[in-house]
Write a structure and sequence with these properties.
Number of domains: 2
Shape: flat
Radius of gyration: 24 Å
Number of strands: 0
Largest sheet: none
Number of helices: 4
Length: about 80
Amino acid sequence: MLSDAKLSPKIKGIGDLNERINRLEASEIWGIPTKVDFQEIVGKEPWEKHWENWEQVQNAMRESQKLAEQINTKVVNAHKML
């Protein structure tokens, strides 16, 4: 972060560089992360249902993006005709 490398934060002129370094150092000494087995806590069925719901949301978002692109294309084309 403090090197003179072409794309280093120092060379890029990051203003709060010392604050960022301090936060990184604090996070390194903060402690070992806790591993949580959510499926064990909530049960297999609710956990699997959660991930099914997640997949449905992801699919709906992909479909929404496709539709938005189609709408955008039609709007752009209609605007060109004006």
